[in-house]
Amino acid sequence: MSRPVQYNNHVKFEGIPEGYMGDGFMATRFEKIVSLARKNSIWPRPFATSCCGIEFMATAASHYDIARFGAERMSFSPRQCDLIMVMGTIAKKMGPVLRQVYLQMAEPRWVMAVGACASSGGIFDTYSVLQCIDLVIPVDVYVPGCPPRPEAILDGFLKIQDLVNAEGLRRRNSEQYKELLETYGIQ
Ligand code: SF4
């Protein structure tokens, strides 16, 4: 299996997909090519409601520069994104709104809960705050911290990339995925 080539601590070059190579040709599986392209061209949809959103702004700015991972194209339309990053306290009143945005995203789609509030309600163990966004939508990656530093958000993003790369074309049509969505009442 081809692996990313590590040239130094800061720059990572993606390896070519596993396949057969010879002079002037390379053959691989279509699924591998699609995964490689998807992984490196994720369009995030920031769903920021409070302080964790500020950390995300730092993550997208020049120092941490999420563009290095092919994700600089933020989408504020659920129709044109494939990763929703939920950052901040989600009040129970906001739950249906978050779910609506998720439902408007086309497959394939991924979800990242950024920070303690999105992942567990955080310090707000109160009647009005959703105690984790996975009560309304399925979550792929949880990032701990209050707030998580940009490095932690990037680490979560890399884990999303690993998922995108690994799942290929099949997961979205699998019985397990359909069953997962059914538990949320999503067809
Ligand atoms: S996890 Fe902490 S920093 Fe993030 S939104 Fe909640 S209170 Fe704010």
Would you write up a description of this structure?
This protein is an alpha/beta fold and 187 residues long. It has a domain of 130 residues: Rossmann fold. 33% of the residues lie in helices and 16% in strands. It is built from 6 helices and 8 strands, in the order E-E-E-E-H-E-H-E-H-E-H-E-H-H. The protein has a 4-stranded parallel sheet with strand order 5-6-7-8. Helix 1 packs antiparallel against helix 5 and helix 2 crosses helix 5. The longest helix has 18 residues. Bound molecules: iron/sulfur cluster. The site of iron/sulfur cluster has 11 residues, from helix 4. Iron/sulfur cluster binds next to helix 4.
- Alpha-carbon Rg, integer: 18 Å
Spans with pLDDT under 50 lasting ≥5 residues?
none
What is the architecture of the domain at 43-167 and 179-183 at the second tier of CATH? Answer: 3-Layer(aba) Sandwich
Instruction: Kindly name the structural category.
Output: alpha/beta
Strand content: 15-25%
What kind of sheet is the major sheet?
A: 4 strands, parallel
Strands, total number: 8
Task: Please name the CATH topology of the domain at 43-167 and 179-183.
Answer: Rossmann fold
User: Main sheet: which strands, in order across?
Assistant: 5-6-7-8
Helix segment count? 6
The amount of helix comes to 25-40%
- Distinct small-molecule ligands in the complex: iron/sulfur cluster
Mean pLDDT reading: 90
Q: What is the CA-CA span between the terminal residues?
A: 35 Å
